[in-house]
Amino acid sequence: MIDLNELTIAKAHKHLVSGDFSAKEITESYLENIEEKNSDINAYLEIFDDATTQAEEADKIIKTKGKETSALTGIPLAVKDNILIKGRTASCGSKILEPYKASYDATAIKKLRESGAIFLGRANMDEFAMGSSTENSAFGPTKNPHDTSRVPGGSSGGAAAAVAMDGALAALGSDTGGSVRQPASFCGVVGFKPTYGAVSRYGLVAMASSFDQIGLLTKTVEDTEIVFNTIKGHDPLDSTSVKSSKSEIINHKSEIKIGVPSFLSQKDTPLEKDVLDNFNTSLNKLKELGCGIKEIELSSMEYSLPVYYIIMPAEVSSNLARFDGMRYGLRTEGEDLFADYAYTRGKGFGAEVRRRILLGTYVLSAGYHDAYYKKAVSVQNVIRKECENVFEDVDIIATPTSPTPAFKLGERVSDPVSMYLSDVLTVFANISGFPAISIPSGTVERDGKSLPLGLQFTASHFRENVLFDAGKKFETAQGM
Ligand code: GLN
Predict the structure, then answer these.
(1) Quick check: helix, strand or coil at residue 292?
(2) What gap in Å lies between CA 206 and CA 18, rounded to an integer?
(3) Fewer beta carbons below 10 Å: N end or C end of the chain?
């Protein structure tokens, strides 16, 4: 029997190479576990019928390459339903794309395929990645494996739950405002968003193009590093991906300096009391590890959520204009062309997606463009500049990932603003393009259940290595 709970990518690789078990055996163990748990958790929307065949192919590679086998050969992964896999459905959790099949592989998928990774299936998500709970999926919510009356976070909730329930060794998600990090913190796994431009967006269905990045959900920081090293790099098919020379690792000094925004401990902190306590305990551990901790002022930070919720819908409204029933997916015919568009989009999109399209067209409309969109872009620049100044002084900004642990299913669905508030600590990384990681930092009790929390580290552009170094140190202190 393979102990899936104990397994990481790094460990599985060693076992595969030394012949302790085959890729087929690992894959079958995951498929069995998914079979048992997925009907309740709903982490996966589909399990691919060729998973075992992919594993057999991986076993052949391992046999010929032996010790030279790539770290991801034979490693079973889950893939968020907005990342294209050739020939497979990519519904983005939406009715409008339910019948859509991808005609090409996303660049990240292509790289993983070339390294011999196994794609187990499509992970559930909030429709078009809009949401913080996975309750906006057109195919039913995902439940949190730690407490099935609670949400797994979102929008990559299916991907996070898949890793947390031992339904995959790692998962690809997407992070536009926190969609990898927040579900990672709710589900007790590592969640990582690379620097904007570090990973190609080619084949990731666009939500807000200037913020979107493919991110990772894994069990350890080491595993994140392994997958990131495989998928990163310049891609001529994504003009915003960065030339490899720029993404070269910048070395940091031996002591990691950590900045803690002062607003976190102020009276009107957005954090629940025991989340703040957990954060302070984490900071003490980091201090014991020899990290320097320093209070920093980030006065513009409070504007990051409003800025995000203006620029993001503006881009959403423009990106989603392509779903009109003519080219992709669902088509509902009306009395004329205009009615075709209206019926298709009215029927195909869920309430949250329609809300954001309306908001986006409003903030971009002639009369309001200057007051909303233009102003938000100016404030975005102020926030970015302020953070860049902070990074002259510290290597990392530390915060909790989310102000609360996982909330109850249904608790926030009728109150969009309370849903948006769970992104209050994650969006600044997206609006400034910084890399950020969420690492499990312990648990708090709610209704007799232990719920995971996450510690978030954000670094300056292309300083992923600092995040990984600090993350591994923190994991050791946590006894992981
Ligand atoms: N929860 C945020 C939102 O609803 C972030 C989404 C994301 O990162 N895709 O927009």
Answers:
(1) strand
(2) 41
(3) N
| Beta carbon of 423 within 6 Å of any ligand 1 atom | yes
Amino acid at 97: L
Atom of ligand 1 nearest to the CA of 208: 9
Index of the ligand 1 atom closest to the CA of residue 427: 5
Active site residue 155: yes
The response to whether residue 430 sits with its C-beta less than 6 Å from ligand 1 reads no
The amino acid that residue 204 corresponds to is L
| Active-site choice (22, 29, 179, 432) | 179
Residue of 24, 80, 143, 193 marked catalytic = 80
Task: Assign domain 4-238 one CATH number from 3.40.1550.20, 1.10.10.10, 3.90.1300.10, 3.40.50.300.
Answer: 3.90.1300.10
CA 135 to ligand 1 center in whole angstroms: 12
Structure tokens at 375: 């102003």
Each residue's pLDDT, cut to its tens digit, for the chain (480 residues) gives 899 999 999 999 999 999 999 999 999 999 999 999 999 999 999 999 999 999 999 999 999 999 999 999 999 999 999 999 999 999 999 999 999 999 999 999 999 999 999 999 999 999 999 999 999 999 999 999 999 999 999 999 999 999 999 999 999 999 999 999 999 999 999 999 999 999 999 999 999 999 999 999 999 999 999 999 999 999 999 999 997 644 444 555 578 999 999 999 888 888 999 999 999 999 999 999 999 999 999 999 899 999 999 999 999 999 999 999 998 889 999 999 999 999 999 999 999 999 999 999 999 999 999 999 999 999 999 999 999 999 999 999 999 999 999 999 999 999 999 999 999 999 999 999 999 999 999 999 999 999 999 999 999 999 999 999 999 999 999 887
Burial class of 376 by CB neighbour count within 10 A (0 to 12, 13 to 18, 19+): buried
Q: Rounded to the nearest whole angstrom, what is the distance from the C-alpha of residue 308 to the centroid of ligand 1?
A: 10
Q: Which residues contact 143 (CB under 8 A, 6 or more apart)?
A: 40, 41, 42, 149, 150, 151, 152, 161, 409
What are the beta bridge partners of residue 232? 199
Active site (annotated) includes residue 378: no
